Amino acid sequence: MRNYTTQMEAARKGIITPEMKAVAAKEYRTEEEIRELVAKGQVVICANKLHTCIDPNGVGSMLRTKINVNLGVSRDCKDYDIEMQKVMAAVNMGAEAIMDLSSHGNTQPFRRKLTSECPAMIGTVPVYDSVIHYQRDLATLTAKDFIDVIRLHAEDGVDFVTLHCGITRKTIEQIKKHKRKMNIVSRGGSLVFAWMSMTGEENPFYEYFDEILEICREYDVTISLGDACRPGCLADGSDVCQIEELVRLGELTKRAWEKDVQVMVEGPGHMPMDQIAANMKIQQTICMGAPFYVLGPIVTDIAPGYDHITAAIGGAIAAASGAAFLCYVTPAEHLALPNVDDVKQGIIASRIAAHAADIAKKVPHARDLDDAMGDARRTFDWEKQWECSIDPETAKQIRNDRAPEHEDSCSMCGKFCAVRSMNKALNGEYIDIL
Ligand code: SF4
């Protein structure tokens, strides 16, 4: 019989939960270390009590960096089974979390399918779903309507919800006064801003935060504090609107922790490379080490079609400097709904960023596969090379399409292969080049 409500409450009571044990084993940490980090809020284990098929993961700056993939049914892709296949493909490619951003029809069956079949952490953005759920225009929705949708998602087994609690009526003045180039680019943030502008009321996710905490506590839903004012272009990076919201997110983090509710804090956005590390440190200080979940950061605005790369550069710097969780970005970002290949490119790019950061952070065993790859390359063990690869399919295809004359080289240098020459030289063998 479970004698705690949330992972955080259990940790603070000194209880080591099955989820903490699973995380400890995956992260090469002791169960006690994980319990302490969960108690302090520096690691979250997003695991709704009703998501029974979950394979638990911990999110925290000292753990392996996790990645999230956004999927969901939309007007252009409304077949639940096809979307579910994409979800499972994303999980098989290494995504630890799926955010269901469904924006069409009855969203509940797909959400329930996710929490009954998918082992990854499931996240949602209830404010998007409110309009779809009630099939009413934004301005006609009430604060209670929004809160009821959060409860519905909690009852459906969702592990974390993005809530844009950090903007208030004051933000409306800030945005007008500070004249950002891109205003608000967060979809949820823009909806909350629009609702406040149209109704003249305070942000319901801020005003009724205590009620929201009660719901999240009951089901152990982690709150991902959304950053409505995340910069949408380099020029808006680290501006007053972004930092002012972050300060409020720090206050809300403290309030959630008082009720044992787990919290992540969302972050930028678009940002010049030289500002990223400082932003991670500021977030860690203001939000007292709560895990930081970043979208990008995208380090240049002029590469549409390649934003999986611009985001991977920023994501690697962010994760190496303290971010715990990366939201994938696909080549279709800013342009269109991603197709299957875009999703794959986005996942691979995020995984590379996360992995590169984990090596720099010296996460236990993070470099094992790289070291094995070095040995496999020296010995021309191609099968081992595929085993160590993030994307073996692509690696194999490139080699096979341009196969070399001999197995002990590749078609790049042929008989001038440095690896082959060195192996032979060190073995005292004759080196035939011509
Ligand atoms: S041929 Fe050149 S690129 Fe290919 S394995 Fe040898 S040294 Fe590396």
TrEMBL record:
Zn(2+) binds at H270, H334. It comes from Anaerotignum lactatifermentans DSM 14214. Its EC number is 4.1.99.17. This is Phosphomethylpyrimidine synthase. NCBIfam families: PRK13352.1 (NF009895), thiC (TIGR00190). Keywords: 4Fe-4S, Iron, Iron-sulfur, Lyase, Metal-binding, S-adenosyl-L-methionine, Thiamine biosynthesis, Zinc. One of its GO terms (cellular component) is cytosol. Catalyzes the synthesis of the hydroxymethylpyrimidine phosphate (HMP-P) moiety of thiamine from aminoimidazole ribotide (AIR) in a radical S-adenosyl-L-methionine (SAM)-dependent reaction. The keyword Iron-sulfur applies. GO terms for molecular function: 4 iron, 4 sulfur cluster binding; phosphomethylpyrimidine synthase activity; zinc ion binding. It holds the Pfam family ThiC_Rad_SAM. It catalyses: 5-amino-1-(5-phospho-beta-D-ribosyl)imidazole + S-adenosyl-L-methionine = 4-amino-2-methyl-5-(phosphooxymethyl)pyrimidine + CO + 5'-deoxyadenosine + formate + L-methionine + 3 H(+). Pathway: Cofactor biosynthesis; thiamine diphosphate biosynthesis. Belongs to the ThiC family. Its cofactor is [4Fe-4S] cluster. Binds 1 [4Fe-4S] cluster per subunit. The cluster is coordinated with 3 cysteines and an exchangeable S-adenosyl-L-methionine. [4Fe-4S] cluster binds at C410, C413, C417.
